[in-house]
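Format is chain and fold; as here:
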Amino acid sequence: MAGELRRVAFLLWPGTHPASIMPALSVLRSANRMAEAELYQVDCFTLDEHPLQSPEGWTLPARVWPEQVSGYSRLWLVADAATIPATINSGLAQQCRALMRESVAIGGLDAGVFPLALTGLLDGRKCAVHWRLIDEFRERFPAVVSGNELFEQDDACPSSSGGQASLDLFLNLLAEEQDPDLAALVAEDLVVERLRDASEKQRVPLRNRLGSTHPKLTQAVILMESNIEEPLTTDEIARHVCVSRRQLERIFKQYLNSVPSQYYLELRLNRARQMLLQSSKSIIQIGLSCGFSSGPHFSSAYRNCFGMTPREDRNQRRAQQAMDVSARSEH
């Protein structure tokens, strides 16, 4: 089952948690073991001289990214939600473009799609972005076709939304680059139930998230998630799912220990918070897009839910990000 030797490089942004590349490394390591041959040589790099260390205290050995590299078939840019870069060094961007001209595939794992987009290589291409980051990504990179699929297996610029999706992407690449039978063996070795396709969506099935298989509850929540900007009334939801208002309220109480109106409100507020922390849209714009008729109404509901106003929450998040950047630069 021996195949072609490939060299793979991972470039991790400062502060990235080492766990971000573990699914990918697991696939490559298992492939070498199952094939009883060295199919993949892996090198990990960082942009500075500091080792990659997790808050839990474990370290991933890595070298500083050199000015000249050669011999790699793939380069993966890696970041996580806590280390999303705002800019990219012009020299590194030029280096990435030069590598692509030499037929090196350059991909992004997790929030690594952000620096990949900063190189300009993703313009006009499709990429997979984690659903929590997609609003910010779309705002920053309108020229990129971003979606909430698990991964994009683009020949030149593959991408993964992160986590388990990186494992799915690497299993699919293994089947393409080496052997589908080897990919199946590796999936079995890693106790992966099945190979997920790139077109599958990131969010887990609604019934799994709710812990319930009640069809009327599932239908009601789908309606709520599909009508954030212009919320439906409880009576309208009940009518759409063909139950009485009282019956719908009993179902929500039994399975979610909540009433439909409260669940709907929290759903809209969580969506607003996601937009607030990941986009530069004004607080008024966010409130209106999440179904709140006025700024004071939005601010009051937000404070009741999260213990602070939208402005306070955004300012606190920005201050924490600034502190994190300062701490990383000091180290």
Q: What stands out?
A: The longest helix spans residues 310-330. The chain has 14 helices and eleven strands.
